[in-house]
Amino acid sequence: ELAARRPKGTTSLAFLCTPTDMHVIPEEANKAAAANYSAFIFKPIGAMVEMALQKLSGGKWLRSNIWSTDEFALVDGLIVNQGPNYALAKRLQHWRAILAYSEGVPVSTNIAPSTATISVTSAVTFKWAYGGIPYFKPYEIFDQDTTNAVMTAALIYDVKCKDSAAYPANKGKKGTSVTNPLELFKYNSFHGGVWRSPYTMDSLGVTSVIIYFMGGPNLFIPVTVAVTGAVAAGVAQIVMPMIM
Predict the structure, then answer these.
(1) Are strands 67-68 and 73-76 parallel, antiparallel or unpaired?
(2) Under a CB-based contact definition with an 8 Å cutoff, are residues 112 and 17 in contact?
(3) Helix 124-132 to helix 205-213 angle, to the nearest 10 degrees?
(4) Are 138 and 197 in contact, with CB atoms under 8 Å apart?
């Protein structure tokens, strides 16, 4: 209503979107997710550990993040533990942004990364998961000051640069094309690795907590190898006398 009452071109709408959502994404990001799905930080040990975790969970952990249709590449960043109210709130944001954009209002609606804010890390399970998730490249959890600075710069760009995808006049141009309303959210994203991750965000929670308690991203594989070796040695000490 405010945009309708004011002179055209003098009002813009802005939202910060969450990466833990479903989005239309660039084809390049989808291809990167596919490449990362077959790449492991610690080959071949990392591959064996991650496949073992998939089998252990019956396929619930570490699900593929590669998803596309004939027309669009997509990402499923939803986290079930955030609840239906959270998902609904984000749908309302998206609907308001799409509606304003369709009426000719510039809309800055960029995706911000997962950020270690007080409200998020006060939930201890999220704090643990945030501590382990950077094992899965290219995921990264950002400090609040970093996120604030980058998203402020993105907002200023959208508002001041007439070539930005935020301006409806550019929806048919190369680099800012919006042939489907949901493509409005795929530009200028600072998603923190969610779009290029090999695994869906929701399938990483338990595994990330395990990684956190096994020393974090840098120590997870060495600790896993050490623990496995110790267990194997213990079993051998028990079994060998029985067969000799």
Answers:
(1) antiparallel
(2) yes
(3) 80
(4) yes
Phi, psi of 22 (to 5 degrees): -100, 130
Q: Which of 56, 45, 154, 65 is nearest to 107 (CA)?
A: 154
3-state secondary structure (DSSP) of residue 67: strand
Cβ-based neighbours of 165, under 8 Å, separated by 6 or more: 158, 171, 175, 176, 178, 184, 187, 188
Give CA–CA dist 186/197, Å, rounded. Answer: 16
What tokens does 79 get? 């986290």
Average confidence (pLDDT) per 10 residues, the chain, 244 residues? 67 90 92 82 70 84 87 90 90 93 92 89 87 90 94 93 90 84 91 92 91 85 72 66 65
User: Which letter does DSSP use for residue 172 in this model?
Assistant: T
Q: What is the CB neighbour count within 10 angstroms for residue 51?
A: 12
User: Where does the chain have alpha helices with state H?
Assistant: 2-5, 27-37, 45-56, 84-102, 118-121, 124-132, 144-160, 205-213, 220-243
Q: For the sheet with 22-25, list strands across it.
A: 22-25, 73-76, 67-68
